[in-house]
Amino acid sequence: MLIRLLGVAVAMTAAWPLHAGEQSAEELRLQYLERSLDSSRDSVRLWQDGWTAVYGTAAITYAALAIDTDDSDERVLHALGSLRAVLATTLLTVRPHPGRKGADPVREMAGPSLDQRLARAEKLLQESSRRTRSKRRPARHLRNLIVNLGFGGLVWALGNKDDALPFTLLGIAGGEAVLLSLPEQPQRDLAGYRKRFAGDGTADGRWRLVPRPGGLNIQFALQR
Fold first, then answer.
1. Domain coordinates of the chain in residue numbers?
2. Is residue 204 within 8 Å of residue 222, measured between CB atoms?
3. 3-class secondary structure, 223
4. Which pLDDT belongs to residue 5?
5. Ramachandran region, residue 217 (left: φ > 0; alpha: ψ -120 to 50; beta: rest)
6. Which three-class secondary structure state does DSSP give residue 98?
7. Which of 19, 80, 110, 187 could form a cystine bridge with 129, CB 3.0-4.6 A?
8. Which DSSP string corresponds to 184-215?
9. In terms of Cα–Cα distance, which of 164, 162, 175, 159 is closest to 66?
10. Are 128 and 99 within 8 A, CB to CB?
């Protein structure tokens, strides 16, 4: 009987490092992701709230100027300025930065398993990094150019032609400022996460348990 009890104790002791190692690996990844999301929250929120406030204020100011003036050319210029600012505010509002709340969306999840929370945290960091990378895509800058050329064309056609060029250049400069000021930290954090947990900077990965005779193995599967 004593020998049997000792055998059970030895088996439990041998199984413990596997279980503890599996738990600590996923917890370590989740903690890393939460710290990364939280550390970039202030800069992301400043970008999000700052530009939303700038364009929101511009929309109201231009609208007030359009109502207050008796000059038809000035009314056209300010009305189009307000409309352009409303468009920018709307885009910032309906498509906010994914990292603006840090890791709060992960912590607020009630009930899901550790693996589900880990997947949510990974997705948030990936989406935040993707938003940063968007400022390097020529299509985003081309879209900014086309939109502002369109508004400039309306000023040319409906208002004072001398106002069209400054109006267009101001709009392009504002759009470029929004793009180029996107915080870089989410992209650095994602690269660091992948390097630390996947072995390189290009692969995603996920821990999984694989059955084996007499127990379980832990594997880190790379997803390219």
1. 45-99+112-200
2. yes
3. strand
4. 45
5. beta
6. coil
7. 187
8. SHHHHHHHHHHHHHHSSSS-EEEEEEEEETTE
9. 159
10. yes
**pLDDT given at position 187:** 95
Mean pLDDT by 10 residues, the chain (224 residues): 47 43 72 95 97 98 97 96 98 96 91 87 96 95 97 97 97 97 96 80 48 53 42
Q: What confidence score (pLDDT) does residue 109 get?
A: 86
Angle at 46 between CA 204 and CA 55, to 5 degrees: 115
In the chain, the amino acid numbered 125 is L
In 3D space, the residue among 162, 210, 211 whose CA is nearest the CA of residue 219 turns out to be 210
What's the one-letter identity of residue 76? V
Dist. CA 127–CA 97, nearest whole Å: 9
Q: What is the pLDDT of residue 209?
A: 53
User: Residue 167, class by beta-carbon neighbours within 10 Å (0-12 exposed, 13-18 middle, 19+ buried)?
Assistant: buried
Phi and psi based region of residue 145 (left: phi greater than 0; alpha: psi -120 to 50; beta: remaining) = alpha
